[in-house]
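User: Here's a protein and a ligand (FE2/S2 (inorganic) cluster). What would the complex look like?
Assistant: Let me lay out the input and then the predicted complex.
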Amino acid sequence: ATTLPYPREAITRAGALEDNVPVPFNYPDAESFCQIIKTGHPVPGGIGPDGDIVAFSTQCTHNGCPLSYDKEARTFKCGCHFSIFDPEMAGQMVDGQSTENLPRILLEHDTADDSLYAVAVEGLIYGRQCNLL
Ligand code: FES
């Protein structure tokens, strides 16, 4: 089998992110919805100058509903059947109907110009047999 490489896509600059305010993007293609978030303190898998920037697929791993971010609880929540995922614990599912953690979008930080790039997906995006269509 041939393994296709993931695209390397610029998302934003680390300095443009505000603490606890997620920014949506699409990766590895337009049909895949993701969010990048700066948590404000170092977290597992976090990158950038403060080790606090992470990104996830935000299609629920239970049935594919769009997740929304709860700023107070600091979690991604699903309005369909109330699954909850924790971006500060590598996307771990902490409650609900789902059985899978959120797929992580692997990031790189270019210290030369402060750019953040999406470079791969770890975990299977909901509804896909392969992350790259
Ligand atoms: Fe999200 Fe069911 S689709 S909990």
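Summary: DSSP finds no helices and ten strands in the chain.
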